[in-house]
Amino acid sequence: MNRFHGTGVAMVTPFQADGEVDYPALSKLIGHLIDGGVEYLVSLGTTGESATLTKEEKKKVWEFTAKTVNKRVALVAGIGGNNTRETVAEIAEFNIDGYDAILSASPHYNKPTQEGIYQHYKAIAEAAKLPIILYNVPSRTGSSVAAETTVRLAKEFKNIIGIKEASGNFDLLNQLFRDKPEDFLVISGDDPISLQMVAMGGVGVISVVGNALPRQFSDMIRKCLAGDFKGAHASHYSMIEFTRLMFAEGSPAGVKSALRQLGVCEDTIRLPLVNISAAADAKIGEQLKVVK
After folding, report:
1. Which of 40, 167, 206, 261 counts the most CB atoms within 10 A of its CB?
2. Mind listing the pLDDT tens digit for each residue in 100-144?
3. Annotated binding site for pyruvate
């Protein structure tokens, strides 16, 4: 199985009460996920609150994560931005030791045209020393990577190996699955519809929920990949309410609440994000009893 088939987890970044990175908790989280059977990890994606970390903090987190993982599972670094020159420089300078790929979200805020998105990723592909996984998440970026643009990139750059698709747009997905190269990976970036995307031809998920429920989520995805959708239904349905709560008052605040209640790490969030309400926290605790 390809190292990026199955369940990847977009890891949270644990913080101490004073807001500093909590490295012992990060080590505990990594152990929790690997012991939970996930296939790979993503360090400092959106869920890792990368937008609020300094360049020096990110470098330290990446190095610590690679050392702690120690090649036990595949490892992906999240590196993106809306300044192409700066993003290319960061990717070119990135220490690739221990890493297997780079996940790069399409530019946020600028709202580039499809040609602008293409040129952005072209520059990244030409600078990268690792395979690139595109990331389409229009709810956060303000623009969407069209299926035609993804297919164009997939055909022209062999080191662009896949896309994390979080548009929730099934018309786009229909076109993408129809037209993409056979070996190009389509990975769900949307936990609630991961089962459906695997049914369409996706190879798995990069999950937020998997931080809290690595065993349950990865087992479900493996059943889907084996064609046992009936067997996956029970897990899928049991996690629906828990998954909804993970995003009801913002991510990663929801999953950090779950991780605190599981004893993995505290739920400290960096501004401008804030913790979820006490009511939502209680509901998450109730759902953990259901899905455990």
Report:
1. 206
2. 999 999 999 999 999 999 999 999 999 999 999 999 999 999 999
3. 47, 206
